[in-house]
Amino acid sequence: MTDSDTRAHTYPTPKLYVRIAILLATMTAVEVGLYYLEPVVGGLVIPFLLVLSALKFLIVIGYYMHLRFEPATLSRFFAFGFVLAITLYAVVLAVFGILAVVIG
Amino acid sequence: MAELTPEMTTEIDETPAHSHEGTGVDNRKLGMWVFLSSEFLFFGALITNYLLFKNRPGFPPPYPKELYDIPFTSVSSFVLLMSSLTMVLGHTALERDDQQGVRTWLAATALLGATFLGGQFFEFSEFIAEGLTLSTNPAASSFYLLTGFHGIHVAIGVLMLLSLFGISMRYERLSEHRGLNVELVGLYWHFVDIIWIVIFTLVYLIP
User: Fold this and answer.
1) pLDDT digits 0-9 by tens, B142-151
2) Which of A34, A71, A82 lies nearest to residue B40, judging by beta carbons?
C-alpha cells in the first residue's frame, strides 16, 4: 500500500470539505456583521472577532491542510513556529503598549 | 538533451523517492511545513509593524482605516476562502486519480486567486487615488508592506497552480511521488489563506 493509498482512507470526503467551506463562509459573514455592530456592542466585538478568526484558522489547518490526520511531527514543527511568532510579537506589542489597546 | 515522453515520466513518477523512515513523513512535506512555520515569523513581523503604526498620530492623513471598503474586502476574503475549497477538492480528485477533475479544480483555484489579486489591485488603486501612497505616513507604509507581501505570496501560489496545470496538460497526469506536487502547493495555498484570515480580522475588522 502506498502513502497515497493510506491517505485516501484517512482524509475527509469532498462532502465534508464543502460543509467546512459553508461553515467558514458563515463565520466570515458573522465577523463582518460584528464589525457593523461595533457601535452598539462596543469593546466586546474584539474578543469575538479574535475567537472567530482563531477558529477559522484552526479549521483550515486541521481539515484543509490535514494536520489533524498527519503524524504529530508535523504539528510540532508547525506549532513551534506559530508559538514562537505569537510570543515574540506579543512581547513587542506589549512593550509598546499596543497590546492593551488591541485587546481592549 | 532527450525529451521525456509521458511513458518515461510515468515510470519515474511511480518511484516514492522522498519517504523518510525516521519521521514517517515525506521529506518534501516536512520541508514545506517547516517553511510555512517560519513564515509565521515573517508575517508576524509585518502584522506587528502595522499594529504599531496604524493609529500613531502626528502624520499627514489619510490613514488606511479611514478608506477601508469592508463589503468589498469581505467579498475578496470570501473568494480566497472558496479557493481553499477548490484546492482541497483538486487534491481529493488526484487521490481518486481523476486527472480531469484535478485540472478543473487547479484552474478554478488559480482563477479565484487571480480574482483576489485583481481585487487587491483595485483596492490599492482606490487608496492611491484618495491620496494614500506608500510614503503618506507610517500606517500607510506598513499597510502596503503587509498586504503587498501577502499579495506577492498569492501571486506565487497562482504561478505554482498554473505550473501544475501546465505539467498536467503536458504529461497528461500529475503524480504525488516526485517534484512539485498538488499536496505541497495545496499546503502553501491554504497557508496563504490562513494568513489572510488573520489579516482580515486584525487589520480590517478590529477598530
Assistant:
1) 999 999 999 9
2) A82
